Amino acid sequence: QPVAGAMASVTGFFAYAVEKPKARHPPHGVINEQLIKAAIDEERALVEEECMVAADAAGSSAAQMSVKDLQAQLARRPVWEDVTHDRLTSLTLSFRSLAAIANLETLSALTTLRLDNNSIAVIEGLSSLVNLTWLDLSFNSITKIEGLDTLTKLTDLSLANNRIEEIRGLDKCESLEFLSLANNRLARVAQAQALRPLPKLRAVAIMGNPACAAEDDYRAQLLMWLPRLEWVDFKAVSPAQHQAAVDAEAQLPEGLVRREKAQEEAAKHEAETAAQRREQLAHGLHHLAALWDRMSGKRRGRIVAVSREERAADDDDVGAAV
Length: 322
Fold this sequence. Notes:
By secondary structure, this protein is α/β, with parallel strands linked by helices. It is built from 7 helices and 8 strands, in the order αααββββββααββαα. It has helices at about 1-15, 35-55, 60-75, 210-215, 220-225, 240-250, 255-320, and strands at about 90, 110-115, 135, 155-160, 180, 205, 230, 235. The chain has an 8-stranded mixed beta sheet with strand order 1-2-3-4-5-6-7-8, sandwiched between helices. The longest helix has about 70 residues, at about 255-320. The radius of gyration is 30 Å and the shape is globular.
């Protein structure tokens, strides 16, 4: 069912942000080709093991279907020798004691990147990963949301279990649907108004923040700012809650609504102005190219004329000498 599918998607996305598991990998600290190779090999080995376990238990049709699914998944997993930077679409670098995000510039085909359970303090080094749709930065030491402006295709973002005090830096993530800010240091639910410009946002997790303990019925407060939400902290928004949120939003200060409309109009005007400038630039370049062609043609004509005059003069000189 659609509702069940959405629930599975939300739960699957936020589930690993609830409790920090024990580290499985030895510390590496730096992202390089050796680390990426190790991560790919380990992921493939894990799927192979699951495939073997499922094959041993394949007695029912359901189990056989599971084996087929795992085999298909295994076939999609890259072997390091076959991987080129423009082909790698998924990378898991969890539990690697990473202190920084670096050396990912050439992996522009990545759609899924897991950097959870590390020691990352700053969101950086992601600007070239313009195809990312899933980014997990949970269980790190991040204090500020930044460095995400180019990730316009991002739909799933987990920043759970960090040290974030303010919601900002997500304006350009226009495709964002699922956002986890659980267990951070947000002091006010009203900060959620920074998420209002995101048109596709439908699931948010903020449980475990100081704001949730400080404010009565923080879910209702969150829905007032974001009435389009379908899920809050793993729970579906009921029709009654949705209607209450719509009614509450209608009571927001007129100044805020006017300011939001003004911002929308300013953004629209900026986009139109940028488009006009691009068109004018293209038109100007076209005229410059045409002018250059004309000037080049005249110059070639003059050169030909001079060459003819020089040849004629040479002929005259030769005739006089004879």
